[in-house]
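In this supplementary section we document a worked example of the pipeline. Step one takes a protein sequence of length 102 as its only input; no multiple sequence alignment statistics are reported here. Step two produces a three-dimensional model, which step three serialises into structure tokens for compact storage. The input and output of this example are shown verbatim.
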Amino acid sequence: MEIQIRDPQGRWQKVVRSYEANGDSFTTSIAWDRTFADGTLAPVGTYDVMVTARDLAGNESRETARILIPAPAARRNAAEVTAEAEAKNAAVEAGRIAMMEK
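The serialised model returned by step three reads:
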């Protein structure tokens, strides 16, 4: 069995992992560290996966799938969170003052 992970745009060398089964069935799992064969770390995007299995008689079966590496969620630092909270509190306080003046 062979598993390939490829960049659909052909920018980096594909990852190829091969396994040999010694029986009637075969099960495996792999964890991809987002690194292509040339050492490039895969950026955010979608990548093709192709699994090919061959038996001793030469019969072949192939399945394809995709791996999605999503963009990371935006992270805010403590100062941004504090500034936002202070702005909300000031807006609430301004609303209270306006209500009291009416």
